[in-house]
Design brief:
With about 240 residues, the protein is α+β, with helices and mostly antiparallel strands. It contains 8 helices and 8 strands. A hairpin with a 2-residue loop joins β5 and β6.
Length: about 240
Amino acid sequence: MSGHSHWAGIKHKKGVADAKRAGVFTKVARIVTLAAKEGGGNPDMNFKLRIAIDQARTVNMPKDNIDRAIKRGTGELKDQAAIEEIVYETMAPGNITMLIKTATDNKNRTVSELKAIFNKTNVKMVPAGSFKHLFKQVGIIYVDTTGKNADDLEMKAIKAGAIDTIFQAELLQVYTEPRELKKVKDTLEKDGVQIDNANIIFHPLDPIEIDPHTKIDYEQLLEKLDKLDDVQEIYDNL
């Protein structure tokens, strides 16, 4: 499995300064809001909301913030603008195809901010549906292996129904079929495995490689996009 997942960047920001943490809270609150909007405000009945709340707790978001985000999604906060999810498809230098998932209460602002970055980095925005067929959706579970037996964790993941596993630094990435994500996550947790995060992501069907110079430019592009509050996830074909 490959492809850049923006959440991996968000997850490791829980120790940053308060100013940056506020930006992470904004991003994660919108994940919670969208999940509540889609499936209701009860995490016991809404697995997507349960995942979103877990993400919020990972970055130490206060309970009051989480509750407000849920109420915003269920429509209990009448004075709040609705949040919608929009996926933008782009082509970056080096034939890098990107799916940029956003959560926004102002589509015009989001497009304007994205285009301001794209115009400076030679990125082309393409019509919806141009690249989505080049990706497939898979479930992913992140497990921190620090101080633990990584091989043992991998075996537990395989027995739980994982279709693939990858080690990256001290993080075990467990891949599942989308419909099996809840089952695998619940099984691992019952087996004593602490889950950092779980989500449904887009995985490239035909990954490519890029040269070192293009990689530097692309990482700078990701950093710029990461600073936008409306950007939630970024997937690519690397």
